[in-house]
Every structure is written in structure tokens, then in C-alpha cells.
Amino acid sequence: MNTVDTIAAPASAIGGAVSVIRISGPDALNILRKVWLGKSDPGRENNHRKMLLGKVNGDPALAVFMPGPRSYTGDDVAELHCHGGAAAAANALNAIFNAGARSAEPGEFTFRAFVNGKLDLTQAEAVSDLISAGSDAAFKLAERQLAGSLSSRLNTVYDRIASLISECEARLDFPDEDLDFDPLDSEKIAAIRQEIKELVDSGRAGALLRDGIDVVLAGKPNAGKSSLFNLLAGSERAIVTPIPGTTRDTVESQIVLCDLPVKLTDTAGLRESSDIVEQLGVARSRRAIAAAKVIFWVLDSSNPDLHAEISDMEFAPGTIAVWNKSDLLPPGRKLPELPCPAVMISVAENRNIDELLKNFTDMVYGEGENARVPEVAVNARSRVLLEESDASLVQAMEQFANGDYELAASDLRNAMHAIGRITGKSSDPDVLDEIFKNFCIGK
Ligand SMILES: Nc1nc2c(ncn2[C@@H]2O[C@H](COP(=O)(O)OP(=O)(O)OP(=O)(O)O)[C@@H](O)[C@H]2O)c(=O)[nH]1
Ligand SMILES: [Mg+2]
């Protein structure tokens, strides 16, 4: 990807009512003038950033010109809004390519925004997070990051390390002066490390919101797994019957639970069977249970033999016992104690589902914590670099204590560049490709 030529791509999904085509680069206005015909010139200053009606290939189209640097990419940008549908967009794009633009690569508009200093790398990543957000909370987090919430925290850390480096270098420049180890330095480093630790810790919430969480419904046949699946998914996806062994295969649904993107899986009831289809289904259930982060182990609390009900229950971390069918429970019936959180519900009567969800958030976030949108939550790439920075700070601290300011300065520089690589202040070409290749074309 270079930043000198003029690129173009559809910016809206093909098949919508309107197709938006974006052109960015030094030749954007010329190309727009070649393909779009209207009464007024979009390049005239009082027409900038205004939608003008005209035609492309004889079809009505709106055009707008946004001169750089006040545009998304920082380049001159033109947009055409044509009729929806693949044909109109393809015709307009062809005209644009014939007029001298080349097809943009995935993420290339955002890449230019980064190169032109409109966004840093954490904000560019937030653009991609916005598009893939699987829940409202994930979307809000991405919006905050795009607005610079993470950038400003990282820039503060970067600046604080930079000022320590200057102090260190002052000592190197004036070795004869009595600039002894200042206990404040170790306090300053400790404070920076604390800030880094908070950012690293935010990675857990970041992973939950970005990647979502696998939740599996497990248990014996007829316990009510599929009924609970349908209730949580909000549709009759899975077949429910009074016949034990109804579900034969795993059924998945992408849902939002307590603001978290969740892949919910219903499974075949666990039991010994001579039926080959059921055996295969049960093997799939076991694989899904082993891979899940959270397991709702559904139990039939109306079973006269409660010990048989829990006999083959597994208590892997993340298991919540869900005693279902509480509507059928004889009064005063005591349920066995279990070595995992337990909740009593009735899917049939929609009873106590809130309590189940509370157990779920306690399990995911830790007790008492709510599913809330964190101010910042770093992703895996940033987390690795934060840890790298922290390791260099630890080394710098040791060098300070030894009075070796030259080595301390070098460690501090490593610590600073690790932070700089997160935002893109320090260059890291491999990372650029990695980040932008995950974008869609037109972003
Ligand atoms: N009374 C009562 N019946 C329920 C409740 N939940 C489910 N059932 C009934 O229990 C029967 C089995 O429900 P399913 O959801 O198919 O059970 P399952 O665990 O998916 O069963 P398999 O697919 O066979 O493993 C159905 O007749 C449901 O209507 C409940 O809370 N109360
Ligand atoms: Mg079922």
C-alpha cells in the first residue's frame, strides 16, 4: 500500500438502496469531474462538503468533495452516491478506474488516515472493532477507543517514560555533578508500571467483548436444555418434545447475554445409548462441553431420584448448575448441595432467569462485578507490547539502582518504544500489514 496514488472502492455493502463509492488521493477531484456531470462544480470552495445532484453514466448520482486534510483519510476525498444494486456500482467504479484511480485494498482508506496522522493504530483497530462489534457494549467500547480513550492513556505513559529518559541523559551529560540516584525515579517507574498493569488487566474485558464467550447447555436428556436454549435465543430454534433424546446434534446461536456477545450451544442429552446416531451426538456434546468457557448444566429438579440426576455431572471450571422445572417441585423439596454455583429456574414459567444471568455475569467478571462498558480495554496485540514495556521498566529500575544511567536509559527507550508500537508512534511495518489486512475493502 502506498499513499501517493488515488484509490477507489465501494464504501457500502452491495445490494443496499444506495451505493456509496469513495475516492481518495491527490487526483480525487479530477477523477470526480471526469465521471460525474452536474450543473455545479464540486471543487468550487462554497460547494465543498455539499451533496450535489448530477449524473454518472447517465444515471442520477449525488457527488460530494471533501478536500484534505479535513477528510476521513486526510487526502482529498470524493464520494459518489449512486443507485443501489451491483450493476450501478460496478458501472460507476469502472468509470472511476478508467479515469485513473486504482482499486483500494482492504483497510487502505483507514491506513491512509493513519499515515496522514488522522488516527493512531489503536483508533484504526477501533474502526475494525466497530464493524465487528457483537454487542452494544462491544460497540460502545470501540467508539470510546476511536475517540482516543486508549490513545490518551498510552500517550501519557509514553511521555512519562520520555521524561525519565531525559533525566537519565542529564546525568550522563554531567557525570561529575552529584546527581545521585533519586528515590523519586523508582517511585516514578513504579507509578508507570501501575498504569501499565491496569491497562494489561483491561485486556480480559477486552477479550470478552471482542471475541465473545462460548456458553454450552449440557445435561441429561429431557432436562430442558433445548427449552432454555430457545428462551435465551429468543426463537424456537431447537426442537423441544417430552421424548428424551430429542436433540441429536449440537445447535448454535449467536446471541447477546448481559451485553456480551455469546455463542450459545445446545447439545444432545448425555446418556449411554446403543443408537449410533445418538452416540455420535453425545460425542459432539462432550467436545462442546470441553471447549466451553461457561457451562449451564441443566438438571431436572422434578426427578424423583435427584442423586441419579447429578450422578454423571462434571464440575469443570465455569459450570453453573441450573435446576430446571421448579414449577413441578413438590413443596419443601431439598436439593443436593453441589460444588459449583447453582440456581433454580423454570423455563416453562420463565421463573428466575434473572438469577441465572446474575450467576453468569458473576462467573465471567467475578462476583459482584457488572457487565459494564470499560473506559478502555486493550486487545491481544497491545497487551503483549505492554508486557514487553513493563519488563524493560523492571530492568531500568535495576540499572538505576546500580547507578548505571546509560543502561537505564537504554532500557527506558525500549520501554517507550514498546508503547510507541501500540499507537504507531514507533514504526513497525509488519504490524501495519497485519492490522489493515483484517479490514474490509472500502474501510
Ligand atoms: N414443567 C416444566 N416442563 C419443562 C420445563 N422446561 C422444559 N420442560 C419440558 O421438558 C421436556 C423436555 O424439554 P427439552 O427442552 O426438549 O429437553 P432437553 O434437555 O433438550 O432434552 P434432550 O434434547 O432430549 O436432551 C419438554 O416437554 C419441555 O416442554 C419447565 O421448566 N417446566
Ligand atoms: Mg434438546
Q: Would you kindly provide a brief summary of this structure?
A:
Helix content is 45%, strand content 16%.
Percent range for helical residues?
40-55%
* Biggest sheet overview: 7 strands, mixed
SSE arrangement, N to C: EEHEEEEHEHHHHHEHEEHEHEEHHHH
Number of strands: 13
Mean pLDDT, all residues:
91
CATH architecture of the largest domain: 3-Layer(aba) Sandwich
Widest sheet, order of strands: 3-4-5-6-2-1-7
Q: What's the CATH topology label of the largest domain?
A: Rossmann fold
**Which distinct ligands sit in these coordinates?**
guanosine-5'-triphosphate, magnesium ion
**CA-based shape:** flat
Name of the top-level CATH class of the largest domain: Alpha Beta
Radius of gyration: 29 Å
Strand content is: 15-25%
CATH superfamily of the largest domain: P-loop containing nucleotide triphosphate hydrolases
How many distinct helices?
A: 14
Structural class: alpha/beta
Pick out the low-confidence regions. Answer: none
Overall structural domain count: 3
Secondary structure: elements and pairs:
Elements: E1 7-10, E2 18-24, H1 28-35, E3 36-38, E4 52-56, E5 59-66, E6 77-83, H2 86-98, E7 102-103, H3 108-115, H4 121-132, H5 136-147, H6 149-173, H7 183-211, E8 213-219, H8 225-233, E9 251-257, E10 260-266, H9 276-291, E11 294-300, H10 306-310, E12 319-324, E13 342-344, H11 353-365, H12 380-402, H13 405-423, H14 429-436
Helix pairs in contact: 4-5, 6-7, 6-13, 7-12, 12-13
The protein binds guanosine-5'-triphosphate and magnesium ion (MG).
The site of guanosine-5'-triphosphate has 24 residues, from helix 8.
